[in-house]
Amino acid sequence: MSAPTEIPAQTPTTTLPVRVPAPPGGERPRRVLGARRAADTYAVLGAVAGSLGLTAVLFNYLTPLSGPLGFVLTAWALFLLLYGLLVAQDENGLAVRDRLAAAVIHSLAGLVLTALAIVVGYTLYKGWSALPHGNFYTQDMGRASSLTPLSVGGVTHALVGTLEQIATALLITVPLGVSCAVFLTEVPGGYARFVRTIVEAMTALPSILAGLFVWAVILILHQQQSGFAAGCALSVMMLPIIIRASDVVLRLVPASLKEASYALGSSRLRTVWQVVLPTARSGLATAVILGTARGVGETSPVLLTAGYSKVMNADLFHGAQTSLPLLVFTLVRLPSERQIARGFGAAAVLLVVVATLFVIARVLGGRGSGQLTQRQQRRREAASAATARRFRTPPAAAPAALSVLPQSKDPQVRRRLRSFLHRGAALLAALLVLTAGLLIGGTPPARAAGSGYVPISGAGSTWSSNAMDAWTSDVLANGMRVNFSATGSSDGRAKYKNRAVDFAVSEIPYGITDQGVPDNAPDDPFAYMPIVAGGTSFMYNLTIKGHRVTNLRLSGDVIAKIFTGVIAKWNDPAIKADNPGLALPPVPIVPVVRSDGSGTTAQLTTWMSQREEPVWDAFCTKTKHTQPPCGVTSFYPTTSKFIALNGSTGVSGFVSQQHNAGSITYVEYSYAKLTGFPVVKMLNADHYYVEPTPYNVAVALTKAQINPNLTQNLSGVYDNPDPRAYPLSSYSYMILPVDRIPADSHFTTDKGRTLGAFAYYFLCKGQSEAPDLGYSPLPKNLVVAALAVVGRIPGVQKQNIALSGCDNPTFSANGDGSNRLAQLAPYPSPCDKQGATAECSTGTGGATRTSTEVSGTKAPSAAPTGTGDSSAVGADPVQVGGSATGGDGGDVSADPVSIAATSGSGLQHSLMALAGLLLGSVVILPPVVARRAARRKGEN
């Protein structure tokens, strides 16, 4: 047997760390990895200061960069660079990469928190004027209009609608979603994989498609919009979210728990019920939260399926029902500041509701597996004590039947009996709730107390929606609930044709051909009835030297060329010819048009097709909208330089934003007045520039020709020779059922009674509110003709209206039928005459109190680009999207600091030297100070 091989002594088998002996007086202090040192703080502060200073130098003096977003991004990139350089002075490469990664993560987290704080803070700021009012939480919007103070109106109806709709959706989605997730997890196979693929695809389903699906089902079943339909639409959106999240959570349940349950003899159902679901309870609660968060903030499916109502409607199965998101969407787009404040207040309430639902879900399902509540812990201890007593003292013999009696002393028996009773009571309560819901859903909507009126619904014109909003608020005191959705004239006519609403409001009659598609009239008997007059105005946002222009004047030819893209700059010679006292800025014109089917668009295009046909036909040909002659259209053709938005509230809201300088849109005069923005003074046939005040509209409509069906022919209005006439004046009308009710129609005589009473109100008393809202009241001949139409509504209770008591501003005192408002209309000032020596400086529309300074020079003729009036008010050198170059050579202005920094003076070199010194100090000083501080600390 050979001897073992010896290992050389000089070759160690293990390398041991060398421990440095402790210094005299104790052990060496250990560094805490998570502690922040002085060098770390100096590095962060130095990098922040250096990045801000260097970015300011780059943006103001060295580069043409501009804009707050670019400033922030550049400063952040420079911060990371400088921070890495500063950390590198004191750390190795691994520490530098770690610090940079931490800085990026903290920056992104701060960005998310900042965005959340801005959203919440801005919502509270904008809605703060409405939130302190107690009525905001106890009233609905039935009596609140654009002119109503904030002490009236609230969000109670929307809060109830949201809770009912989301509860309906949860009742549908939670059982189905969790059951489907259990199937996908516990029953694997080919079918489960197919279902999982469908669920994953449905998570990307656009919400509008869910609303359209449920809306189509409503139309097929000949039903109306309701809260239950909205709950079904929300469930379609929430179901795939809950299934997908629950599936992921259930997959995380350890397989050993299920195997142990099966080993003890449990069935699959019992294992799922008592092991899988309790273990995944916290994750399932999170899945429900995700689904609820998706559904509670949805607007488009609710808008299609639930409609919009200003009053409380707790009936899920009948009538329109408003939710908080829909209320916010509706109110914040209105021109009134009070309505906007109510809208943001509703958004704040929605935030509170979401936070409350989140807390409730976390309390109910936030405990982990095995964590018991105090009540469950007490029950567990009591059961354990009872089991111990049973083993220590055998129970006395008793008949088997007595073991289940209530007087049994066995704690386990009593616990089971109580559990049985509790479950029975819960089941009985659920049956009672279901029965009550079916009874409520099976009964027709109740009439208003003591009024005999049933709710009615309508949709259509945004042009006249401000008037409709005020009238529907007024009649609520009489027990009439009229729900009107301002969705556009084309949509209103389509809904009326499909019997989705009881009436429609439009400026366009049936029968026109739009883009080659005829708009055929419905088969049911109907009639047109005028409701209010007004002017289609041109609201704009333009500034000169930081001051808003409020007295802009344009001729019809210039307006047509602006909205066809021929004139693209505000300092165009044609515009300057209309405004000789203004040095208009050389910025692009941004036309904002309607994207939906609009009566306002039809009014504008009707005028252009009759008075500016060559320009209009050329534009239609260019955009390939239709073949000339283009004629009237309700869908405005657009180009890349146009902005298309939905509804009058959309286009007016865009123009009213301060940062959208240079924009102009066409909208009813009421929106500009309530928003506080000016409108264009339009040149009329007598060569006067006039705005669409109620007086000027009344004068213009004296030349309107009324067709036998009460629709309008406005050819005479466009050429009205009166100096006070506004050319684009017209009126809106209601489309309503008359004479008889078809057998398969949802319209009833009870609805006809409500609709007739509502029409009697706004044709008489309601017309007195029109001037305050920016509209012009109907003249006497149209009121008389409209009253005759009201008498044909099925179920109407005919009234003998004394016109002398209507308080209509157009009715003359002697009753001769003349238009009193037109007679009292003031004549325009001489300064508004085309070719006048000086133009008027007074404001227009909602900016009548703001004047614009003008020069007193003679109006110039159209001059080639490059010449201008140097004596006019100086224009802004910089506007949104504009440049000071390439425009009017007479408007020269610049930033004095920029001139000094680029003129080669001594100040330029001084600033550059100061910037370099600042950058060097930021890079060098922090590590030097940190090292000295560390050295002193070590010495001490």
Ends distance: 67 Å
CATH architecture of the domain at 136-365: Orthogonal Bundle
What top-tier CATH class of the domain at 136-365 fits best? Mainly Alpha
Question: Over all CA atoms, what is the radius of gyration?
Answer: 37 Å
The H-level CATH homologous superfamily of the domain at 136-365, spelled out, is: MetI-like
In CATH, the topology of the domain at 136-365 is named MetI-like fold
Helix count equals: 31
For the biggest sheet, the summary is: 8 strands, mixed
Which percent range describes the beta-strand content? 5-15%
Please give the number of β-strands.
17
Question: Which spans of ≥5 residues are poorly predicted at pLDDT below 50?
Answer: 398-408, 437-450, 857-905
InterPro entries: MetI-like, MetI-like_sf, PBP_domain, Phosphate_PstA, Phosphate_transprt_permease
Family: Belongs to the binding-protein-dependent transport system permease family. CysTW subfamily.
Organism: Streptacidiphilus alkalitolerans
Membrane topology: Multi-pass membrane protein
Compact overview of the structure:
With 940 residues, this protein is of the alpha/beta class.
Spell out the key features of this protein.
940 residues, alpha/beta, MetI-like fold, 8-stranded mixed β-sheet, globular, transport, Phosphate transport system permease protein PstA, transmembrane helix, Phosphate_PstA, cell membrane
